[in-house]
Design goal:
Elements: H1 5-9, H2 22-38, H3 42-46, H4 54-64, H5 67-83, H6 91-108, H7 116-136, H8 143-150, H9 158-176, H10 185-202
Helix pairs in contact: 2-4, 5-6
Protein name: UBN2_3 domain-containing protein
Organism: Cephalotus follicularis (Albany pitcher plant)
């Protein structure tokens, strides 16, 4: 969130415990710590969960994982992402899996920017790439909503794209009454035909 990166950089320093601001600092520091730990693998997080500040966790992570280790970890995560598709997962589970790996990459890829404008441009490009990855991994039965999103001239954020796809998933579940399984286009046509035939037979 806005300003929370200051807890990682150390710009926001802990006030004295007697200060009126200490409670706010403590709550926000714990929130940033949770973000960091939740973005890591269990093995990484277990080694860092007892540190007291977000900055210490961040510094320890950067110190523990050298550039050489970073390259190996980044390579491994990118390989996982290439193969990661929705499969039997719900839209929410699939998206959460992507988010976890993306957060790990964000932590490992420590890019130094000399120009704020370049940083903002990079973030826009990265957001678009992540939208494409999310959409590419969706199951075939969601081709319609995928095409609808890709037809938008200015793509929304990846979170907005996820929300739109999840709404479509929910709509199809309600429409076809199939629990967690979403029918393919062929199955949808067959179900619609069967329902139409049933209606005709009852008249």
């Amino acid at each position: 969130g806005k300003g929370k990166e200051d807890y990682i950089s150390g710009t926001t320093v802990p006030p004295d415990e007697s200060s009126a601001r200490y409670r706010t600092w403590k709550a926000e520091n714990h929130m940033v710590m949770s973000w960091l730990l939740n973005s890591m693998t269990n093995e990484m997080g277990e080694n860092l969960m007892y540190y007291q500040t977000a900055k210490v966790i961040w510094d320890a992570t950067r110190e523990t994982y050298s550039n050489k280790d970073n390259m190996s970890a980044i390579f491994e995560i990118k390989g996982i992402l290439i193969d990661l598709t929705q499969g039997e997962m719900t839209i929410t589970d699939y998206f959460n899996a992507l988010i976890r790996y993306w957060q790990q990459l964000d932590m490992l890829e420590d890019i130094k920017w000399h120009c704020p404008e370049d940083n903002q441009q990079y973030k826009k490009i990265l957001e678009k790439e992540r939208i494409y990855k999310f959409l590419l991994g969706l199951n075939k039965e969601l081709d319609e909503v995928r095409g609808r999103i890709l037809s938008i001239k200015l793509l929304p954020s990846v979170c907005e794209v996820f929300s739109e796809v999840r709404r479509e998933e929910s709509r199809r579940k309600v429409m076809f009454g199939l629990g967690t399984k979403i029918p393919t286009s062929t199955e949808s046509s067959a179900l619609a035909a069967n329902r139409g035939q049933s209606s005709s037979n009852t008249q």
